[in-house]
Amino acid sequence: MRYWEILNEVGGWGYDYDDSPPSRYVRLPPNVVEAFLNLAHLQRDEPEFAMIEVQKAYGGGILSSVVEHVGDIIHRITVGAPYGRTGKGYARDKSEKSLYWLTGWPNKQMQYFIAKGYSPHTYSFDSEMSDNIASNAKHTKVPFDDYKKRLNDTLSAYAKAHSKLPVYNEIQYVCRAAAMSVGQKQFQLAIKYLRHIFDATNSPDWDARAFDYKLDSNGNLLQYNPS
What we know:
It is built from 11 helices and no strands. By secondary structure, it is mainly α. It has one domain (25-210). Helix 9 runs antiparallel to helix 10 (187-201). Residues 1-16 have low confidence and may be disordered.
């Protein structure tokens, strides 16, 4: 059975990406919409190019998927601001997939395989990533240390690019922190943030949290401060 046939049988990842019907639209003030949409566009600039550089330096493998999906979450939950859409399905899908890659965390697709008699994911993320680096360095005939240094440099740039993104609520802050943690190779911390995102998408107050904001006395939007 082919991959897309399996997904069709289990109902894909099980998420409606456009999952805010009109009755649940969140209406935001114009200056908040502008700031959220600008955040979405900023993510598609320096952080997106940094992600591509990581993928090029890595050469293919599990890390490529992680940097792409984790970095994309903050874009998906803000780009729909003009239409009142909070991107819940995208955030849930991307956080769950990333958790699976990082931990082997069982998801709907994996449960299908287990039910069919396949063993669950037991090959650790660190082991797979290290093997990918060694294999890709050998294939490209680049010394391992040089290959790894280039990858580490691009990961640092990925973390730095995401750190520059302005955030305006706790959910955006956690999404940014997850991407920064991946770039800093603090994968256990990234897992913590991704679980937070995934759990939030299953909460009835997701829309309110994803589009939360605070204005100062002059009506200006304030950046989020976790302290």
